[in-house]
Write a structure and sequence with these properties.
With 341 residues, the chain is α/β, with parallel strands linked by helices. The chain is built from 13 helices and 13 strands. The chain folds into two domains: 143 residues, Rossmann fold; 137 residues, Response regulator (Rossmann fold), CATH 3.40.50.2300. The N terminus is likely disordered.
Amino acid sequence: MKKKIMKLTALLAVCALMVGALAACGSSGSSDTPAGSGSGAAAPTGETFTVGICQLVQHPALDAATQGFRDALVEELGEGAVEFDEQNASGDSATCATICNGFASDNVDLIMANATPALQAAAAATATIPILGTSISTYGAALNIDNFDGTVGGNISGTSDLAPLDQQAAMVKEIFPDAKTVGIMYCSSEANSVYQADEMEKYLTEMGMTVNRYTFSDSNDVSLVTQEACDGNDVLYIPTDNTAASCTDAIDAVAKQAKTPIVAGEEGLCTGCGIVTLTIDYYELGKITGQMAAKILKGEADISTMPIEYFPNTTKKVNTANAEIYGLTIPEDYVAIEAEE
């Protein structure tokens, strides 16, 4: 009996050793598995975020803002931590709605809406997914908010590209002191363009100029409207209007034929068809938006309490080639727009 007990004890000891060895093998194998493997995560925190980008149309200002947003978000969260679903609506508001509804259906982690129609579409698509706008002049006008106090609330915040309009009006007077009539030309369906036109008309009228307004509904009638505006005015002003920004070649051809100079609301417009502008840096504006997105995704900020942010500096810029064509001498405090290579 004693021998049987000893044999049983030895057998149990061998089993215990085998179990320990198997456990050790399993433990050493797990150390070869990358952190976060199996979840698709590449961020240090083990999370991967999906960000939908809806851009209204392709033109230099919006393109720069989108690139700045992407660069800042990758810089903040790490390479591979963000999957971007970037889509362009080719200037069509209905397509913006389709894109943003798709983002809502896919339940992306955040939506970046580049330009006013994109923001409006995103706001209509979801009340829960965080939405950051960029290249928006005024959120009050874009979202029909009375007495806007600087914070949208709910699931929306973002950045504004609005330059001081009183200073842009003063620029018209500075460069064209003999001008008596100014034509303001913009897309009637862009709420922020309407807002800028209202403000500029007020400032220019106070300076003693006669203001005439000209609107187009889409790119199809831009050339005809430009011709009418050129025929009736000494100088034109075009605000930060996305439709106009995507049609600068057509505008420029008509304006030069009519010898009617243009003051533009931002650098991309000025490069395409203008003489001078007071502009912000859209790439840096996009980076500010990306930094806001990183705080939201990391849980460091509540979007409902985040105020709209603005690019802190504006720069006077001149399209020197166009200035020479019109025979204008531009003050030395204007920075020449770099020619595209």
